[in-house]
Amino acid sequence: MLSLSQFQEIIRQTYDTKDRRRGVEGTFMWFMEEVGELATALRSGTAQERAEEFADVLAWLATMANVVHVDLEAAVQAKYGTGCPGCGQIPCNCPPKEKP
Ligand SMILES: [Zn+2]
User: How many whole angstroms from 77 Cα to the centroid of ligand 1?
Assistant: First the structure.
């Protein structure tokens, strides 16, 4: 089992040099390209293709977090670790028009 923190560290060790060279704008473009591929996989891909595209999107998200020095696990824990950031509940009890 891989924690979000361990995953981000693997991505850092694997790609950090390339990521620094590419910078935040270039990295964001790749991230958006992967999001597009996920959209295609969701629409017409196999279960295997969908799983791979989710992995790619998460990898590029972790890369971007590395480039701008965000600790993903800490950020997720702080914002969603106790439930909905809006109402503080699990499951979310916010009015539908605020967050469908
Ligand atoms: Zn809520």
Answer: 16
